[in-house]
């Protein structure tokens, strides 16, 4: 198995969300590959505080578009590792679901 098939606990990676459908490859898993420049490996249950924070940083995840449903508090979503770290350092990070967070996050 590839690293992207394991979670940060070293177990089989679990689904983060299928509603809304998440993941860089839109398969519900927070798995990554060389083409994923943002390293979307952190499965998180987003909060209003995080959604407001990331919007203020130029990444609006709460507004629906033709290709994106828009997130609301309580939705699970695969976040970019660096954005989650940035939010953590600002005291705005949403909780991580370890069983669905890809092993690459632990590096």
Give keywords.
17% helix; 107 residues; two-stranded antiparallel sheet; globular; alpha+beta
Task: Spell out the blueprint of helices and strands.
Blueprint: E1 40-45, H1 48-56, E2 76-80, H2 81-89
Give an overview in words.
This protein is an alpha+beta fold. It contains two helices and two strands; from the N terminus they run βαβα. The chain has helices spanning 48-56, 81-89, and strands spanning 40-45, 76-80.
Query: What's the helix-strand series?
Result: EHEH
* Helical content (DSSP H or I, runs of 4+): 10-25%
Number of strands: 2
User: Regions with pLDDT < 50 over 5+ consecutive residues?
Assistant: none
Largest sheet: 2 strands, antiparallel
Shape annotation: globular
Provide mean pLDDT, rounded.
92
Distance from N terminus to C terminus (CA atoms, Å) equals 18 Å
* Protein structure class: alpha+beta
Rg value: 13 Å
If helices are DSSP runs of H or I spanning 4 or more residues, what is the number of helices?
A: 2
Strand content: 5-15%
**Strand order across the biggest sheet?**
1-2
């Amino acid at each position: 198995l590839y690293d992207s098939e394991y979670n940060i606990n070293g177990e089989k990676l679990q689904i983060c969300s299928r509603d809304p459908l998440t993941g860089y490859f839109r398969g519900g898993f927070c798995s990554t590959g060389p083409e994923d420049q943002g390293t979307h490996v952190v499965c998180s249950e987003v909060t209003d505080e995080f959604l407001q924070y990331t919007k203020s940083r130029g990444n609006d995840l709460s507004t629906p578009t033709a290709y994106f449903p828009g997130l609301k508090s309580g939705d699970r979503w695969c976040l970019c590792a660096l954005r989650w770290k940035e939010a953590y350092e600002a005291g705005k990070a949403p909780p991580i679901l370890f069983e669905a967070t890809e092993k690459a996050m632990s590096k």
